[in-house]
């Protein structure tokens, strides 16, 4: 019997070890007592007994989830390079958090402490920069000594290897300016030196690092001349040696620069203007508390691996290391921990397995900071194993607040007390959670800042639209709710959340509408799908401040032609009446009435409440909207034409007075009288036009992005204008009667001789910046122009422009467009200029969005001739961009391909290669 017992227990152990090697959370069912009993043909009770004995032996770990799972300890520790706790784990999330502390299996930025926290935005910037075609964007990392700039650069290099941007066998080229005595030596070492009398030719680091990543540290030590030479390389990809010989050299190196001083004060302006990606590496004291904890434990774990023994530290040591501001940042912290471990190791018993670090093992400068008192005995009673310690108090606290809300709901379901009492308890839980988020100092990173700005705009929109009186910290609280949702998926599938949310929707229908609108805006702005727990929190917060929101017996809708005509009228009336009485639908000039009718139906079906509606329209086919709504049988619709603000205000007041719909229609029309006055303008206004073949909305977004780059408002209007109207329909004469047009920019040349045209790609590449500065110099001072250039450089990166102009995932669409452009060049046996490549990137990204949203450009001036004469080119474009077409399930129409053709024909390089080759391109 004992022999049989040992044999069966070993079978269980071997089974667990084998299955653990390939186990994931999704396949964990095979490591439950129930499955193991079936696989080994033993009873479930016996399997459970053996498994629990193995847990007590320390060879198997237990996860107390539903169902309970058992995994082989050593297999997990070896695979992840981490020591696991001997205590049972509450959930898979807790185990995964422990496993994440190891670096085995992690790639590039995943190894970085702060990857999902304070450095997440920096990581996203670097990923975009290093992948930017054709050879990445240069990166400048600024931060104090010892903040990890070199380590960060090594991770960028590893990321480039993992993305197959550089060869797998390359090493990061490091050029440390501090190793050289003067600027001349730096220049020779970096740029190389041509052969001369009594000296051999010398390749510089730029030559050696060709097709690799070059990290230049302490860039401020380079002379201004060397910095300007580096700027020339970033402009043209070419440079001359340090002795300025005639021979021009080329390098496709990916550059990372770093400095420990303020870049604006110590780097040349010429170089700074060509460094679009600036990473601020925070000091150790600026890092969130969680990241400082992880760094401390990480360095202690490194020492534990080095000495081959477990290391324990006292709570007071941990606390002091957390609180002390290390002047030399992470590097000094690492050295401090290494010294402390060495001191403790010398004093420990050689036979013992553990090394204990106390206050007196710390360096003297740290011991002097420790508070005097009887702490030694406390330290002996409370020690931390650095390999198994997990401290994520924030996650634990957040989960407790979530559980408190769901517990109240559970009690309500069991006890069936009044909804008012439930609401009171849920509100109390929400307010406690809100206070924690407001007063906790653990949130600090660029991602939260971005979310906070979006949420501020969302709630500002709601307060304007529904006249809510929301507290100032509301956006602050809910930006952190969203951030925490992104960090954890623990409650995503909790059935209690769905049930509690369904109950609140019934209790608070108005708040449910507001919440749904918030979620829709957030998804459009941040591409974040708001989960049930966050929606529940939104409703609990909104119900305290939404008592003035009303749903009238008659719905008012204004529809007008134009970009924001209806919105403007509705906004004025809603403000004057102090109630959200009118919804607005703006109809594009080129839009069809059928599309507007579809949007109107969607609105009517979406918003619950009354089925009587008054529609105010401006003119034309909108007056016959009722014909297109014939299938809407549940709606009584009144239509009034020739809408104005005065008419809308009169109708709005009557709706608020609960007058019958028939009486409102009749009296409003009887009382409405028009009049006019003429005031002629005598002074022309300076203006900059933006145009795009993609439509007025894209042109307006470009104008907005340019306007946002100004350091202050100036007396120039930035206008998004209709491209076809400017080209053919007399729009120029209309504009010139009112405006002094400084220049026109955009994605398509309107071909007007009277106008100065600067392509959007020349703004992105900064090719025409001096010309733009001259035109705007009478409106801004020199220092303001400098600030404008810096902002323009930031706002008009290709990544940012595409993100501003489209709703699609920027990284994905740029990757796919780049593949297509490369394929097209290969098919045409041509290499496009950088300006043309940038222009094609913008144009095709907008093109894809138009096709996805089913709003393509359907005509081109010479479309028929083009279709007959350029069939090979049409096939080449469709073939080159097949991958992006299949990804978004679209097909390039002839009209859109014709505009792509226009870009390539106007490529600056086309004029350099002669008329015969241009003709060849036209007839390829």
UniProtKB/TrEMBL annotation:
A family per Pfam: Sigma54_activat
Domain Sigma-54 factor interaction: 112-342
Domain PTS EIIA type-4: 553-685
Any single GO BP term: phosphoenolpyruvate-dependent sugar phosphotransferase system
Domain of life per record: Bacteria
Keyword Transferase on entry: yes
GO molecular function per UniProt: ATP binding; transferase activity
Domain PRD: residue ranges: 808-914
Matches recorded under InterPro entries: AAA_lid_NorR, P-loop_NTPase, PRD, PRD_sf, PTS_EIIA_man-typ, PTS_EIIA_man-typ_sf, Sigma_54_int, WH_DNA-bd_sf
Keywords: ATP-binding, Nucleotide-binding, Transferase
GO cellular component terms, semicolon-separated: membrane
Official protein name in the record: Sigma 54-interacting transcriptional regulator
């Amino acid at each position: 019997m004992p022999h049989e017992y040992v044999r069966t227990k070993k079978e269980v152990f071997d089974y667990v070890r084998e299955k653990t090697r390939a186990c994931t959370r999704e396949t964990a069912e095979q490591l439950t007592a129930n499955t193991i009993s079936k696989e080994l043909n033993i009873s479930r009770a016996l399997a459970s007994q053996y498994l629990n004995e193995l847990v007590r032996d320390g060879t198997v770990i237990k996860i107390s989830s539903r169902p309970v799972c058992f995994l082989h300890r050593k297999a997990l520790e070896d695979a992840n390079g981490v020591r696991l706790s001997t205590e049972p784990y509450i959930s898979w999330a807790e185990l995964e958090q422990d496993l994440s502390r190891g670096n085995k299996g992690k790639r590039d930025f995943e190894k970085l402490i702060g990857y999902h926290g304070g450095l997440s935005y920096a990581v996203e910037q670097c990923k975009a920069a290093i992948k930017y075609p054709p050879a990445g964007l240069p990166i400048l990392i600024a931060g104090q000594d010892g903040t990890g700039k070199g380590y960060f650069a090594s991770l960028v290099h590893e990321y480039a290897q993992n993305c197959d941007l550089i060869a797998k066998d390359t090493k990061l080229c490091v050029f440390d300016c501090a190793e050289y005595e003067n600027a001349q030596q730096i220049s020779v070492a970096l740029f190389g030196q041509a052969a001369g009398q009594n000296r051999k030719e010398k390749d510089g680091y730029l030559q050696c690092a060709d097709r690799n990543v070059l990290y230049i540290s302490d860039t401020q030590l380079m002379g201004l001349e060397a910095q300007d030479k580096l700027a020339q390389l970033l402009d043209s990809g070419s440079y001359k040696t340090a002795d300025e010989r005639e021979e021009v050299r080329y390098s496709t190196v990916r550059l990372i620069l770093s400095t420990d001083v303020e870049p604006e004060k110590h780097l040349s302006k010429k170089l700074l203007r060509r460094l679009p990606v600036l990473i601020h590496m925070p000091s150790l004291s600026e890092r969130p508390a969680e990241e400082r904890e992880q760094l401390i434990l990480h360095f202690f774990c490194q020492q534990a691996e080095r000495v081959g023994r477990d290391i324990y530290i006292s709570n007071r040591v941990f606390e002091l290391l957390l609180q002390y501001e290390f002047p030399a940042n992470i590097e000094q912290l690492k050295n401090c921990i290494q010294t402390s471990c060495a001191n403790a190791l010398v004093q420990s018993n050689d036979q013992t397995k553990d090394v204990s670090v106390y206050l007196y093992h710390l360096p003297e400068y740290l011991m002097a900071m420790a508070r005097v008192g009887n702490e030694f005995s406390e330290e002996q009673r409370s020690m931390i194993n650095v390999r198994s310690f997990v401290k994520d108090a924030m996650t634990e606290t957040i989960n407790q607040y979530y559980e408190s809300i769901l517990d109240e709901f559970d009690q309500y379901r069991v006890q069936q007390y009044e909804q008012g009492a439930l609401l009171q308890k849920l509100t109390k839980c929400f307010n406690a959670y809100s206070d924690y988020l407001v007063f906790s100092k653990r949130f600090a990173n660029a991602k939260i800042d971005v979310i906070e700005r979006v949420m501020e705009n969302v709630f500002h929109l709601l307060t304007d639209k529904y006249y809510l009186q929301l507290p100032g910290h509301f956006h602050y609280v809910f930006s952190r709710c969203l951030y925490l949702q992104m960090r954890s998926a623990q409650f995503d599938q909790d059935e209690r959340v769905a049930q509690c949310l369904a109950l609140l929707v019934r209790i608070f229908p108005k708040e449910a509408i507001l919440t749904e609108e918030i979620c829709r805006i957030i998804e459009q702005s941040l591409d974040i799908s708001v989960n049930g727990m966050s929606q529940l929190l939104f409703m609990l917060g909104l119900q305290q401040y939404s008592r003035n929101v009303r749903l009238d017996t008659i719905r008012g809708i204004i529809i007008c032609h134009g970009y924001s005509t209806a919105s403007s009228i509705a906004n004025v009336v809603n403000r004057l009446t102090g109630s959200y009485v009118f919804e607005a639908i703006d109809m594009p000039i080129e839009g069809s009435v059928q599309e507007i009718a579809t949007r109107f139906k969607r609105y009517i079906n979406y918003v619950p409440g009354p089925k009587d509606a008054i529609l105010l329209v401006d003119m034309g086919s909108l007056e016959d909207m009722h014909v297109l709504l014939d299938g809407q049988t549940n709606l009584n619709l009144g239509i009034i034409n020739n809408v104005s603000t005065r008419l809308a205000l009169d109708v709005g007041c009557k709706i608020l007075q609960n007058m019958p719909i028939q009486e409102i229609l009749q009296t409003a029309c009887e009382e409405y009288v028009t009049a006019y006055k003429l005031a002629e303008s005598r002074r022309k206004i300076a203006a900059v036009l933006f145009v795009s073949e993609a439509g007025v909305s894209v042109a307006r977004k470009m104008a907005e992005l340019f306007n946002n780059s100004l350091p202050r408002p100036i007396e120039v209007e930035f206008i998004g204008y209709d491209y076809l109207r400017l080209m053919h329909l007399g729009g120029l004469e209309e504009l010139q009667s009112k405006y002094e047009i400084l220049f026109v920019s955009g994605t398509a040349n309107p071909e007007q001789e009277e106008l100065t045209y600067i392509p959007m790609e020349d703004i992105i590449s900064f090719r025409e910046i001096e010309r733009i500065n001259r035109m705007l110099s009478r409106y801004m001072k020199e220092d303001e122009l400098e600030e404008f250039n810096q902002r323009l450089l930031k706002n008009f990166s290709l990544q940012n422009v595409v993100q501003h102009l489209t709703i699609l995932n920027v990284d994905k669409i740029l990757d796919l467009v780049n593949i297509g452009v490369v394929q097209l060049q290969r098919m045409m046996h041509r290499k496009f200029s950088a300006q043309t490549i940038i222009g094609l990137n913008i144009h095709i990204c907008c093109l894809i969005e138009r096709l996805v949203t089913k709003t393509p450009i359907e005509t081109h001036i010479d479309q028929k001739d083009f279709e007959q004469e350029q069939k090979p080119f049409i096939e080449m474009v469709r073939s080159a961009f097949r991958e992006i077409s299949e990804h978004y399930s679209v097909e390039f129409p002839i009209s859109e391909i014709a505009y792509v053709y226009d870009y390539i024909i106007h490529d600056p390089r086309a004029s350099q290669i002669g008329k015969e080759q241009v003709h060849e391109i036209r007839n390829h």
